[in-house]
Write a structure and sequence with these properties.
Blueprint (H helix, E strand, L loop, with lengths): L1 H4 L8 H7 L6 E5 L3 E7 L4 H10 L10 E3 L4 E6 L2 E6 L4 H12 L4 E5 L4 E7 L3 H6 L15 E7 L2 E9 L4 E7 L3 H11 L6
Antiparallel strand pairs: 1-7, 2-5, 2-6, 3-4, 4-5, 7-10, 8-9, 9-10
Helix pairs in contact: 2-6, 3-4
Organism: Saccharopolyspora griseoalba
Protein name: Sarcosine oxidase subunit gamma
InterPro entries: SoxG (IPR007375), TrmE/GcvT-like (IPR027266)
Length: 195
């Protein structure tokens, strides 16, 4: 995928993110070039069931739910909308699988891999860092592992995914056009943990 898109949206901020990390407390990094495919389909249709079978995980049907397989995460974004996230280079295969399962039924499958990048924030101070710019209750009882939400972080629209509530570890899906702004905000907000 790097060949298709050139450098990642945060290539110029990789050093800033690394320098903002604090061993044992906070780690900031980009997870670049993941496959991201947007899916819209009626969740009660036969196609939704076929899609679940084809990808190895039924489509989540509750707000904020995330389903996982070994190589895929399925994020609930709306009553008939999901974001499927897979490893680099898998978008075309994933699209093909989804389109085959969709068949002639009404729905859409769109490769949005170039639309967003992911910033990973992990470590004991990650929840505190995110709370500085996010109104969500990020306590592990309220925002547990394998939950996601569309929200604002430092006034940037993001999809926030809790990968591990115990560590904790989060993925922030941010539009490529806002990625540098968000990386700079995270670095600035993390400054207190470096002292």
């Amino acid at each position: 995928m790097a060949e298709l898109y050139g450098e990642s949206p945060l290539a110029a901020r990789a050093e800033v993110l690394a320098e903002s990390s604090v061993p044992g407390a906070l780690r900031l990094s980009e997870v670049a070039f993941t496959a991201q495919v947007a899916l819209r389909v009626d969740p009660k249709s036969p196609a939704a069931e076929r899609i679940g079978t084809a990808v190895g995980a039924m489509l989540p049907n509750q707000p904020g739910q995330v389903a996982r397989t070994e190589h895929l995460q399925v994020l609930w974004l709306g009553p008939d909308e999901w974001l499927l996230v897979g490893p680099e280079g898998s978008a075309q295969q994933l699209q093909s699988t989804l389109n085959d399962a969709l068949g002639e039924e009404h729905g859409s499958v769109v490769d949005v891999s170039g639309h967003r990048t992911i910033v990973e924030v992990s470590g004991p101070k990650s929840r505190d860092l995110l709370a500085k710019g996010c109104a969500l209750d990020l306590h592990r009882r309220a925002f547990a592992s394998d939950q996601c939400a569309q929200t604002l972080l430092a006034r940037a629209g993001v999809v926030l995914l809790c990968r591990d509530a115990e560590l904790p570890s989060y993925w922030i899906f941010v539009r490529a056009s806002f990625a540098r702004y968000l990386a700079d905000w995270l670095a600035d907000a993390a400054a207190e943990y470096r002292s």
